[in-house]
């Protein structure tokens, strides 16, 4: 959630035999569940909303983590380049350019792999949400 995407939240109390957890439910999640699960009990709706919000929080945490990894990879590449320049001031220009190209290639490769992991995670998260949705919408088959 950012300044351009402000959602209102309502707090929902999820009770179980072990603990009570307060979960903030976005208006978007609330509308989706209320529309799609109109014939379900309040308990099923409440649990579904909590599940969707948990999935959203997990996805956001993964995205934030990926951003941190990207920054760390970039900083490491820049530090290596700086150390290379400071440690060998008499280095030939061609060797320096080659080293910088190698570092850039490494950063680009790491970025590509990171984005691929994010896309794969997003796909798995979407599949998990769809499976959870199907589980809540289909009665038990005995």
Describe the structure concisely.
With 142 residues, the protein is mainly alpha-helical. It has helices at residues 27-36, 42-87, 93-137; strands at 9-15, 20-26. It has a two-stranded antiparallel sheet with strand order 1-2.
Topology of this structure?
Elements: E1 9-15, E2 20-26, H1 27-36, H2 42-87, H3 93-137
Helix pairs in contact: 1-2, 2-3
Choose one word for the global shape: elongated
Distance between the termini: 41 Å
The largest sheet, given as strand count, sense and whether it forms a barrel, is: 2 strands, antiparallel
Strand order of the largest sheet: 1-2
Describe it.
The protein has a domain at 41-137. The chain is 71% helix and 10% strand. β1 (9-15) and β2 (20-26) form a beta hairpin. It is mainly alpha-helical. α1 crosses α2. It has three helices and two strands; from the N terminus they run ββααα.
